[in-house]
From TrEMBL, chains A, B:
<feature type="binding site">
    <location>
        <begin position="309"/>
        <end position="312"/>
    </location>
    <ligand>
        <name>substrate</name>
    </ligand>
</feature>
<dbReference type="Pfam" id="PF13667">
    <property type="entry name" value="ThiC-associated"/>
</dbReference>
<keyword id="KW-0004">4Fe-4S</keyword>
<dbReference type="Pfam" id="PF01964">
    <property type="entry name" value="ThiC_Rad_SAM"/>
</dbReference>
<comment type="similarity">
    <text>Belongs to the ThiC family.</text>
</comment>
<feature type="binding site">
    <location>
        <position position="154"/>
    </location>
    <ligand>
        <name>substrate</name>
    </ligand>
</feature>
<keyword id="KW-0479">Metal-binding</keyword>
<feature type="binding site">
    <location>
        <begin position="268"/>
        <end position="270"/>
    </location>
    <ligand>
        <name>substrate</name>
    </ligand>
</feature>
<feature type="binding site">
    <location>
        <position position="212"/>
    </location>
    <ligand>
        <name>substrate</name>
    </ligand>
</feature>
<dbReference type="GO" id="GO:0009228">
    <property type="term" value="P:thiamine biosynthetic process"/>
</dbReference>
<feature type="binding site">
    <location>
        <position position="496"/>
    </location>
    <ligand>
        <name>[4Fe-4S] cluster</name>
    </ligand>
</feature>
<dbReference type="GO" id="GO:0005829">
    <property type="term" value="C:cytosol"/>
</dbReference>
<comment type="function">
    <text>Catalyzes the synthesis of the hydroxymethylpyrimidine phosphate (HMP-P) moiety of thiamine from aminoimidazole ribotide (AIR) in a radical S-adenosyl-L-methionine (SAM)-dependent reaction.</text>
</comment>
<feature type="domain" description="ThiC-associated">
    <location>
        <begin position="20"/>
        <end position="81"/>
    </location>
</feature>
<feature type="binding site">
    <location>
        <position position="499"/>
    </location>
    <ligand>
        <name>[4Fe-4S] cluster</name>
    </ligand>
</feature>
<keyword id="KW-0784">Thiamine biosynthesis</keyword>
<dbReference type="InterPro" id="IPR038521">
    <property type="entry name" value="ThiC/Bza_core_dom"/>
</dbReference>
Amino acid sequence: MSSNRVAADRVDSVTTGPIQGSVKHYREIEADGTALRIPVRRIGLSTGDHFDVYDTSGPYTDHTAVIDVEAGLPKLRDSWAKPDVPGPRTQLAWARAGIVTTEMRYIAEREGVSPELVRAEVAAGRAVVPANHRHPESEPMIIGKKFAVKINANIGNSAVTSSIGEEVEKMVWATRWGADTIMDLSTGRNIHETREWILRNSPVPVGTVPIYQALEKVGGDPTKLSWESYRDTVIEQCEQGVDYMTVHAGVLLRYVPLTAKRVTGIVSRGGSIMAAWCLAHHTESFLYTNFDELCEILARYDVTFSLGDGLRPGSIADANDEAQFAELRTLGELTGIAKSHGVQVMIEGPGHVPMHKIVENVRLEEEWCEEAPFYTLGPLATDIAPGYDHITSAIGASIIAQAGTAMLCYVTPKEHLGLPDRDDVKTGVITYKIAAHAADLAKGHPLAQDRDDALSKARFEFRWRDQFALSLDPDTARDFHDETLPAEPAKTAHFCSMCGPKFCSMRISADVREYAEKHGLTGEQALDAGMSEKSAEFAEAGGKVYLPVVS
Amino acid sequence: MSSNRVAADRVDSVTTGPIQGSVKHYREIEADGTALRIPVRRIGLSTGDHFDVYDTSGPYTDHTAVIDVEAGLPKLRDSWAKPDVPGPRTQLAWARAGIVTTEMRYIAEREGVSPELVRAEVAAGRAVVPANHRHPESEPMIIGKKFAVKINANIGNSAVTSSIGEEVEKMVWATRWGADTIMDLSTGRNIHETREWILRNSPVPVGTVPIYQALEKVGGDPTKLSWESYRDTVIEQCEQGVDYMTVHAGVLLRYVPLTAKRVTGIVSRGGSIMAAWCLAHHTESFLYTNFDELCEILARYDVTFSLGDGLRPGSIADANDEAQFAELRTLGELTGIAKSHGVQVMIEGPGHVPMHKIVENVRLEEEWCEEAPFYTLGPLATDIAPGYDHITSAIGASIIAQAGTAMLCYVTPKEHLGLPDRDDVKTGVITYKIAAHAADLAKGHPLAQDRDDALSKARFEFRWRDQFALSLDPDTARDFHDETLPAEPAKTAHFCSMCGPKFCSMRISADVREYAEKHGLTGEQALDAGMSEKSAEFAEAGGKVYLPVVS
């Protein structure tokens, strides 16, 4: 823990214990002599079976784990091999050298794919494994379009509100519900200390936007920024263990005037800071002119670039415009440079885009940026619903993920209006798990539909507790059910409150199925052949189809 | 009001008064000697301008209106012309005869299109105007893919819970927030009386599923249903003023066994009731065999068919299967029959469908059902998020509407779990307004983007109150803003709580724009030519870009 750390009493207690209806389980495998324990959330079913789901929550949901926020999480990856290869020691360099790292084996088991697929995708630059050597607490994960779509949750204090304790709890809370990475976007006081507490306790990769802290260091005046102060900030954050960094190096001086006629100008904070700097100095962005040196720094730690879209559209009117795509072309150029230094790269994307303009974003990103993983904020499919932008953006996020986006940055209901609280963070995460899963289904991810099928089967068989446990948010599902039918017998009732016992279509169709199976009737021909003489028999049995099982 | 009506004290008071930041306004036009007042919601802006939006809320949001729930709404359409033509007096027959009805003129003004477009689309069967002669209180509206995408809200009591007063208020509440039609799906006691109160007070078309009431009349046993009792129920509802009716006439005997191997069988209540009847009697559905007579009844009142998808998939696993598409083909056959009787038709659609299988539903519906308006329930893009199915389904709804679906049936957060309360109804309506609007944008509806642009402009210019007023839900937008920055000066602050005054990208880009405009810099060449010498000047001005306007 950093010597700058704040007093422990400023970190409130964090949420621990398993999610309702499940337990933490570890699959044990061996990789190059190292015993690996791959975490899964194991959902117990009333049938005696279980269903395992991908688990991002770290030790916090393990009821046997001892959580000590002051000590931080165990340094899981410190003992893992870091093979010697010529050049940088990054997952990209190892993958290119044909080496399957321990991280890659861990990821393959998590994703249900072969270690070779992981290596090949990383080597091609189509996937990244954000894993700073100095953040050994993190459980390896991968971002790439051949794998499950990932989601990021933003946390971080601002000048206006929030404490360190709240931010650490937000990280634990967000990963509990499924955040694959978190970004610490703090801009207020104690940026270094907040980040230290988050990193030492985070089981997922942590991203930052170093320009925010660099700006704090120069008193908030962007014209006073310099490459030197920025570089020092990046090194400080690399040393701490930040896994990926947003760098707005594509905001070039000549692109700035392209935003002048926009409805909403520049809406990216990093983008606007760099635009102001470029205009004030009438000089090309120091992030662009010093990009090679920046690559050398990130390569030493295996920090991944997240090349920021500083000129992303902030409204439907500005989507897919000249400013946005000019920057994207430059991000493509920078992608090639970063990879030549052995540095992993992903590309950030919009923003606000109407549905019919979404797919073009993915197509151009892939074409211009060597298929580097795309990491988008939404996009929001309309501007007219502040207060519901988790939904407006989930629509865009699902579509852009189906088209190939590898990670989705969540948007909470407070977007455009205020800072998300604990409930907003959960709502944002669950909403984005929906978008990511919908895309996994549409892309045919091998493990995706199993969960839908398991839940729907439980629903059809009136296994209410299993339905809750298999859902993304068992607590809410159960609470909603209990609002109308709170009694315990209702958990096993063969009907629900929507239709009541007499109108239950599920019950009727269970009867239909039972009847059809009994008589081998599963197709038109079978029906024609065998059904005529059975109808009286069914009518007799059918007289009972509405018998309520709970009075 | 029906003589069966329940005591007035059972109807609680309903919500009245304008939505925050707007007033009811009427555009006055003349049509064939009739003075028409077309309602709009007029949003007042702090710039002195106003912005009008489509308004479904009826007189309840008119602060000058006297609302008397016992008397019902004024019978707006009773005095309108009902031209004599050979055959039925339906909007379809009139449109085919080349007549632009008063309803069509009213709709054209509402939609911002020509009356002739309305007539032509109705004549072609690509749009419907659900307007029972016996529901003169309703304000005409149109459902068709060339017009704004519409949404429906389901209300209605069940055997388990809810009162008449609650249902009337749900209708008022749902239309307040934008429901274009409502369906009364009551299955419990007082079905007739509940419907009467809703119809006499509803400014929007009301739909029902007559089989629910027919089933109540035979004590809940589907095997006891008969054509005669069903027909009587339909006539009763036509007489009351129901505008459109869901009829599951496509559930044929030979399709029932196709559902036996499904993960979730038959999930439509109407579908399962008819399946049970067909199996019990081993006879073709009485809805199918008596469809001509049914058409004759509906034609007399100009009640619109909503041909129900009784075999719609209830899970991702069952999407686009043989049972679903077999029924859809039959709905196409019935569409032709209905139209030959002069009856308007729309077609109901799924359900649960993964994103990559959604567009095929629209394609086949259009091909097989003569492009009759498609009216879909969601579809839910995944099964795994009970408690959030307004969101899972908004994803599917946006995509299916972009592909050509004309009306979306809302889904609330309580779907699969319980009965929606007042908050759930609002959440469902707003969520579906988002889906519908996102599709309007993607389809290039002429009026759609104006609202996004107006809101984004207000956002960029820090006109907070205008941003709230232009949003789909001004109350929530304002509440969320006030949670972090409640003070009144913050409503005019040139920053918000997310970034605080020092980090505001909107402010920086306003400065960039001001600078660029001052120097005529709006393109790369302009920049190259004129910018070099101006940079010192900007640096001087730029030193002030972060001055907070509120301390």
